[in-house]
Amino acid sequence: MSERTCHCYGCGRNQGVESSDLPCLTLQGWYIVSHLKGPEDIKRYGFCSLTCLQRWVNENTPSIPEIFFSSLDDF
């Protein structure tokens, strides 16, 4: 019986972790990212692959507006 579940924030996959298993063995190959939002406020995200991690980063990172790049041509 799985007592804990790790959720992939990229594709939605869930990986159960048995209470008798070490998470580092069950989640081998996964990427765990910690986001320090403030004092004692840590958000953790799990990703089952680099592809899922890259997708999440692309969706959650503000992009530079194209007009900024085109204005560099004027210099």
Automatic annotation (TrEMBL):
It comes from the Bacteria. This is MYM-type domain-containing protein. The lineage of its organism: Bacteria, Bacillati, Chloroflexota, Dehalococcoidia, Dehalococcoidales.
